[in-house]
Amino acid sequence: MAVTIKSSREIELMREAGKILAKTHEELERALKPGMSTLDIDRIGEEIIRSYGCIPSFKNYNGYPASICVSVNDEVVHGIPTKKHIIQEGDIVSLDAGVIYKGYHSDAARTHGIGEISPEARKLIEVTRQSFFEGIKFAKAGNHLNDISAAIQAYAESFGYGVVRDLVGHGIGSHLHEDPEVPNFAMRRKGIKLQPGMTLAIEPMINAGSWEVVWLDDDWTVVTEDGSLSAHYENTILITEGEPEILSLNV
Question: What is the pTM of this model?
Answer without folding.
Answer: 0.97
